[in-house]
Design brief:
six-stranded parallel sheet, 2 domains, alpha/beta, about 300 residues
Length: about 300
């Protein structure tokens, strides 16, 4: 608080750029500084809270009211996906916004001692990879049941991430489904090794069951240039489409069918991976992000000085 007051005394600000929940205290800061307020909206905080704690749906009106107030008080909103843009149009009709797609994370240098999954796990055929937590909504049950349905003994699934208890739970599920030796749960790994794991895979999977916000890993998947399999839900379809990814209904049969198809077709995997990487370059690169952000600020400057 003292730091904020000092900055306001010493400098003049044209814009206060608030990310996510910081918008709630940034509103008063922008008013005191007589500055424009930009709301960088990476997610719907109301939706995320209700998805995590279902009982909060009882207070939907209140939670969405806070979010609505933040949108309406901003001079410009920067949603990262179309579903958030739709929410702005619903809650704050006429509000100026610019769709600012998330940027694919540029991978750091790969540590020399990063494990070679194929060598350590004895994988000789195609490899499918999932990276992320193992919460139920992520669809790990769907993925394992899909692998069982695929009946492709040459295909190996590797799962990176998850808490110790969740890993143990799904290791038991692997045994139940008769997938020992074909599905490996490795637990968490360091983020700075992510790119090497992605590059080792032939297919990258996001079997998420529900949600609106696009998982950040999707942008890393695109940048990796590997064939992507994802469930046909809004979290995925606002970034992915059938021209460069395999979108499936969230059923074991549908997941198994696509896993089997791609495991048997190296040319198709390569084609999808190349298209995915091109989409990452066009829509989600640092260059594309910078152009969209500067364009939004250019508009704000023109409005301010009009």
């Amino acid at each position: 608080m003292a730091r904020r007051k000092k900055l306001l005394r010493e400098k003049k600000y044209d814009v206060v750029h608030a990310c996510e929940e910081s918008v709630f205290f940034a509103r008063s800061l922008a008013r005191r500084a007589n500055a424009q307020l930009v709301y960088d909206m990476d997610s719907s905080m109301a939706d995320q809270m209700m998805e995590k704690w279902g009982w909060l749906k009882l207070f939907r009106f209140l939670l969405e009211g806070f979010e609505k107030g933040a949108m309406r008080s901003a001079d410009l909103v920067l949603p990262v996906c179309q579903s958030l843009a739709d929410k702005i149009e619903k809650f704050a009709p006429g509000k100026r916004y610019v769709l600012l797609h998330d940027m694919a994370m540029e991978f750091p240098a790969i540590p020399a001692d990063t494990e070679n999954l194929r060598a350590s796990l004895g994988i000789s055929g195609p490899m499918a990879l999932y990276i992320g937590n193992l919460e139920h909504y992520q669809g790990i049950d769907l993925l394992l049941e899909g692998l069982a349905a695929a009946a492709s003994p040459e295909l190996t699934l590797v799962v990176v991430g998850g808490k110790e208890g969740d890993v143990a739970k799904y290791q038991a599920r692997v045994k139940e489904l008769g997938l020992v030796g074909r599905a490996h749960l490795l637990g968490p790994r360091s983020l700075n090794r992510l790119s090497y794991y992605l590059e080792q895979a032939d297919m990258l999977i996001s079997p998420r069951l529900r949600g609106v916000n696009t998982p950040m890993k999707i942008y890393s998947y695109l940048l990796a240039g590997r064939a992507i399999i994802a469930t046909r839900i809004e979290s995925h379809t606002q970034v992915l489409d059938d021209s460069f990814a395999r979108l499936v209904e969230p059923t074991p049969a549908a997941m198994g069918h696509v896993l089997k198809e791609l495991a048997a077709d190296a040319a198709l995997r390569s084609q999808l991976g190349e298209k995915a990487k091109e989409i990452a370059r066009i829509r989600h690169s640092r260059t594309a992000y910078r152009a969209a952000l500067l364009g939004a600020y250019d508009h704000l400057a023109r409005v301010t000085h009009a």
